[in-house]
Write a structure and sequence with these properties.
alpha+beta, 272 residues, 4 strands
Length: 272
Amino acid sequence: MAFVALIIWLFDQYLGGSTGVFYGGLIGASVYVIITYYAGSKMALAVNSAREIQKKDDPRLWRMVENLSITEGIPMPRVFIMDDPAPNAFATGRDPKHAAVCVTTGLLQIMKDPELQGVLAHELGHIKNYDIRVSMIAFALTAVISLLADIMLRLTWFSNDERENNQAFLILGIVAAILAPIVATFIQLAISRQREYLADATGALTTRYPEGLASALEKIKQSGSVARHQNSATAHLFFVNPLKGHSLASLFSTHPPLDDRIARLRSMGNHA
């Protein structure tokens, strides 16, 4: 939020220091975050073509989510299935009372019960820890910053003579417009990666069997997690990264390396 305010202030100064622009920008950003807060989960489920199920549609999945919800002490979330051969899952919503968990058909096919239980416990851990809210707001603010930076960059290139005389803010505007989305992305990455580690730990403590989750991660590492229909806007929500990309791209991944996650889980098992 502080970074958003800084970018809006720079934008305001570049336009001549109008307080109306600064406060208007803050109000606009807040409205966007509120809309995302209430509608983000519906959009995430819709863009991934997730369909809601009931107990009769998949008793195995339903019972696991139900039992783990009781263990976690949270309301049972709505359950969705996404038709995709890549093994993956995600949780979304704004709080435990308004949450949903979604798994792919690929995950259901290749996972044994202890492994599927580990993945579901991880996703319910996101719900219990309010990661679903944190990641949604972080994503919304990152989008706001990217939009502001794009507007600043365009105004910089098409600025009039009067603004060109203010060389300090001209240079600052260009630098801010280029760096802001990168900094915002790294803030989101830092939040997302730490929350993934936390959800792994929460899931392992819930099932009291870290090896189940570690084995699921290992199986996904071997089979691959690239989704058939990729959507970068919701990639940060998934259990493992559903997007293509290696080497340099992995630095900008919202997910920690699978090997690190597996090692941490097995370390928990060794200390148990």
